Every structure is written in C-alpha cells, then in structure tokens.
Amino acid sequence: MDRGRIAREVRVRQAKETLEFEREHEKTIEEQIELVIVEIEGPRIDAAAFERMSAEDAALVREELTVSSDDDGPSFFERDDVIMIDDVDPHSEELARLNDELEDCRRRQRAFEAYLAALGA
Questions:
Q1: Domain segments of the chain: what residues?
Q2: Which residues contact 36 (CB under 8 A, 6 or more apart)?
Q3: pLDDT digit string (tens) for the chain, length 121 residues
Q4: Do residues 99 and 27 lie in contact, with contact meaning Cβ atoms separated by under 8 Å?
Q5: Using CA atoms, how far apart are residues 15 and 21, in angstroms rounded to an integer?
Q6: Exposed (0-12), middle (13-18) or buried (19+): which is 101, by Cβ within 10 Å?
Q7: Rounded to 10 degrees, what is the CA torsion of 54, 55, 56, 62?
Q8: Contact 110/19 with Cβ under 8 angstroms?
C-alpha cells in the first residue's frame, strides 16, 4: 500500500471538489449581482421598451416582470437585514458586499488551482 500515492490522490480529489464548489459559488454571486443591477436599472429599461410596445403587450410583460410580495421571496427592499438610512444607497452597499464576496471566491479558486498545479494534477 502506497500511502503517499493514496494521500496525494485524496488531496487532489478534495481540491478539485472544492475548486468546483468555488466555481459554482462564483456563478451564484454573479447572478446575485445581476439581480441587484436589474433592481436598479430594470424600471428604466422597462419604461423605454414599453413606450415602443402596444399597451396590451406592455401590460402582459409588466405583470410577469414586476416583483411583488406574493413572489417566492422578499425583494431586496423588503429584506429585514437591510436598514434603510437616508442618503445611503442600499444597492451600492449590496453590490460592494457581493463584489467583495466574488473577489474572495476567485482568490480561493486561484489558491486551489495553484495547489493542484503544485501537486502536478
């Protein structure tokens, strides 16, 4: 039994699994960033598009895209972990937090990629 080989194989597998998790986590964070951006820019984009559509079509699209409290979960502004303070843009704070999390996730990926390279995997 070659303990070194076994340990190396397990470490490679563990590192690859963690790296895959971090890559999926990165995608999730990017999607969260997109959702915050659509909360900021969506109404402006919608208004411009609705002006070029029939009222009936615009109403159908508006009904589908409008976030209400009846949807799957609370919108960004209905979250109870966000305190609204005058002159503070909650979107910028959320985007900053998500971007920090994204950078941390990418940093972890680079570390595991370096580890796998050091193992020759």
A1: 3-68+89-118
A2: 76, 91, 94, 95, 98
A3: 899 999 999 999 999 999 999 999 999 999 999 999 999 999 999 999 999 999 999 999 999 887 554 445 444 444 454 444 455 577 888 999 999 999 999 999 999 999 999 999 8
A4: no
A5: 10
A6: middle
A7: 110
A8: no
Q: What is the rounded CA–CA span in Å between residue 42 and residue 108?
A: 32
Q: In this structure, what token pair is assigned to residue 1?
A: 């039994």
Q: In sequence order, what are the residues at sequence separation of 6 or more whose Cβ sits closer than 8 angstroms to the Cβ of residue 117?
A: none
Residue 36 and residue 82: Cα distance in Å, rounded?
13
Tokens of 92: 């910028």
Largest CA distance in the chain: 74
Cα–chain center distance at 62: 24
Extract the tokens encoding 61.
């699209």
Give kind and range of the element (H or E) at residue 107.
helix 90-118
